[in-house]
Amino acid sequence: MESQNQILFREFNEAFVKGTTDIILASVTDDIVWRMVGTDTIKGIDALKEALAGMENDNKFELEIEHMITHGKEAAVNGLIHSTNRDGEQRHYSFCDIYRLNKHKDGKIKEIISYVLEV
Fold it and tell me: Which class would CATH give 4-118?
């Protein structure tokens, strides 16, 4: 049986592949910091809203979570994302996200560090 934090992280990752921005925004603190290693760092919920608007496209995504480790206010989730554009071209990405919550029980995501590689 999944813990409350495991449910939060699974639903958060599923929201990304489905483009469900309301779930994403409801899961983070106003002062969210999201560092995407090798690219950008997003600071604050307004910057996150802007970044999410820029991610909208017609691609279809599938998510495979391989591992999810939670302990206290920290977690790590890794897996694969499969993307298919409207022309049928496929791309595959391996990811690992490290999370920090603002509190242990009923917390929101305060910090994310993401590692993403095309495979």
Answer: alpha beta
